[in-house]
Write a structure and sequence with these properties.
The chain is an alpha+beta fold and 344 residues long. The chain is built from ten helices and 16 strands.
Length: 344
């Protein structure tokens, strides 16, 4: 089983499963024949990543939504026999006396109270319900990578990126001694945030802290995965693959091998699956998307394609494989010019 070295420090915590393919491919990712052009469009991405971060950040005053594992109290005014305590189950539901199952996950307290009132209304007239949270357990954030203490963290309020990083301990840098008395050195240069299967974005955390930018203390969403890169190069594999996540990138890595390690495309990628190679860009080159047909990378002929650390390999759902879709629908994933290129 192949895992990045930074993940190996939390060997008991294996969020991403890595499948290795027995087939050998000969498409070097860093030294390929430039005489064989890729028959697919190259599209530059121009969206400001600072705006992307703001768009993806939950509102500071967003009401809390109930989640799996939360312990709640349902109080029915004037009917103590119907009042009870519950734990929101893995299916997002609670079971009421008489009325049965009600789905409350991803609902505010008020919304959940209304749903419960409607469920009880079939059996009782004029019921008024109040929902309170006794214990918050659903605001979970997973921290992985080059940190001292990777794992799952629970938060009562909105999870904040700086607190997540602080709980994980200083970044692990092999061969680099910590700088005493330098609080900024306790934070990594950057971190990558994964949100579901289709959204991943980079936060240049150290620079934001140094410039006292308000986005440094970024508000996360429950179930976000925060990955702190180590000294090794990496790529992210997202979309319609069996095991999305982060993979090591070496000078001998090939596009087929990386996709194989991610388990390969799922059925939702369709029979004519494509891979969108998203270069996030830097201060000298714009971010861009290069589309490659999956069947082409399985051929013996070389491709004019170089992969860089931080690139994203995205496999879209069948029928959504145009480069324009990435820009219009997946801007958070695609607009990955580093923040330094914008803020200098």
């Amino acid at each position: 089983m192949h895992m990045p070295p930074s993940f190996a420090k939390g060997a008991d915590f294996r969020l991403f499963g890595w499948f290795l393919c027995a087939l050998l491919f000969t498409l070097p990712a860093h030294a390929q024949n430039s005489n064989a052009p890729v028959d697919a469009p190259t599209v530059e991405l121009k969206k400001n990543p600072i705006d992307v971060l703001r768009e993806l950040e939950p509102a500071a005053d967003a009401p809390y939504q109930l989640g799996i594992g939360d312990e709640i109290t349902v109080e029915v005014a004037g009917r103590t026999e119907l009042s009870s305590k519950h734990i929101v189950g893995p299916d997002g539901r609670i079971t009421l006396p008489v009325a049965g199952s009600v789905e409350v996950a991803d609902k505010t307290r008020e919304q959940a109270a209304t749903l419960i009132e409607n469920a009880l209304g079939s059996y009782y007239q004029g019921v008024t319900v109040f929902v309170s949270v006794d214990k918050y357990t659903s605001n979970r954030i997973t921290l992985l990578g080059a940190v001292g203490h990777p794992g799952v963290m629970n938060f009562e309020g909105a999870p904040l990126l700086l607190e997540v990083i602080s709980r994980g301990g200083p970044p692990v840098r092999e061969g680099v001694a910590p700088v005493p008395g330098d609080p900024i050195a306790a934070y990594p240069e950057e971190c990558i945030i994964y949100r579901g299967k289709d959204t991943v974005f980079t936060v240049e955390l150290r620079q934001l802290i140094e410039e006292d930018h308000n986005l440094a203390d970024y508000r996360l969403r429950r179930n976000d995965i925060v990955y702190v890169p180590g000294p090794t190069k990496y790529v992210s594999v997202m979309g319609m693959v069996i095991h999305p996540g982060t993979l090591n990138l070496t000078n001998r890595s090939t596009l087929p091998q990386l996709l194989a390690e991610a388990g390969g495309p799922t059925e939702k990628a369709g029979n004519s699956a494509v891979i969108q190679v998203i270069h996030r860009g830097d201060a000298h080159a714009p971010s861009r998307v290069i589309t490659v047909r999956y069947k082409d990378i399985l051929q013996a002929k070389p491709l004019d394609l170089t992969l860089y650390s931080g690139d994203i390999l995205y496999v879209p759902e069948s029928g959504l494989n145009k480069a324009g879709y990435v820009i219009e629908k997946l801007a958070p994933l695609a607009a990955l010019v580093t923040l330094g290129a914008i803020m200098h």
